[in-house]
Amino acid sequence: MVKLVMVRHGESTANALNQYTGWNNVGLTTEGRVQAHYAAKQLQGFEFEHVHTSVLKRAIITAYIIQDDLKLNYVPITKTWRLNERHYGALRGQNKDETRREFGEQQVHLWRRSFYSVPPKLAHPDPNDGPYKYFEPRIMPVAESLFGAYKRIVPYYVDHVANRLLDGKNQLIVAHGSTIRALIKYIEGISDQDIDGVEVANGMPLIYEFDDRLNIISSNRQKK
Ligand SMILES: O=C(O)[C@@H](CO)OP(=O)(O)O
């Protein structure tokens, strides 16, 4: 039996302001740090061979807090743009309630939770500097549906996480709401329609136990 644990970062400053975040690189609130420590507390005794996170600091800081609390700072960590949150395009930085008033509840729900809906696009991609400067410019999105994010997330999971699980080594992913929704969809084989109802809370470890062919033996995911 091998375990995969996925944790959404603790509350970010943008979460606290009810803003769309996506690839905006915001930090954790005090409450977010508390949630990261709480996640570690839930994972006492869990040992993992590798940590996977995004290049966004809210996830990286959460991962470091968990590693530190579990005294597993030495475990290798990979930071990859492929595990970044879904890119929210021109919605990023906007208040979610204000967009509900402007565009209606239904449109906002589609942007936030449907598999194929693409949020309004940026006129131009951001410059690919900072964490993205060694990647070819075409990786920079102007907006992503969950499907768009899924297409870049799942290949990373297959090549860098599933192979290690198949080798019997526990893995920890510390990432984002939509990144983890995409992975839940892939791992559980959830339909394009039903992924709409899947939510991921900040700092609550999602634990899967697999057999040696990566069939799910158990999971603590609460289903509606
Ligand atoms: O703003 C975001 O990037 C995400 C996660 O916080 O929000 P939503 O729940 O709307 O996908």
From TrEMBL:
- Which superkingdom? Bacteria
* Family matches, as PROSITE patterns: PG_MUTASE
Keywords of the record, alphabetical order, are: Gluconeogenesis, Glycolysis, Isomerase
Active site (UniProt): H9, E85
Q: Where is this site: Transition state stabilizer?
A: H176
- EC number(s): the record gives 5.4.2.11
Q: In which pathway does it act?
A: Carbohydrate degradation; glycolysis; pyruvate from D-glyceraldehyde 3-phosphate: step 3/5
**Gene Ontology BP term (one):** glycolytic process
Pfam hit, one: His_Phos_1
Gene3D superfamilies on file: Phosphoglycerate mutase-like
Please list the reactions this protein catalyses.
Answer: (2R)-2-phosphoglycerate = (2R)-3-phosphoglycerate
Purpose of the protein: Catalyzes the interconversion of 2-phosphoglycerate and 3-phosphoglycerate.
The record's annotation in NCBIfam families points to:
pgm_1 (TIGR01258)
Which family does this protein fall into? Belongs to the phosphoglycerate mutase family. BPG-dependent PGAM subfamily.
The entry's protein name is 2,3-bisphosphoglycerate-dependent phosphoglycerate mutase
Tell me which species this is from.
Answer: Companilactobacillus suantsaicola
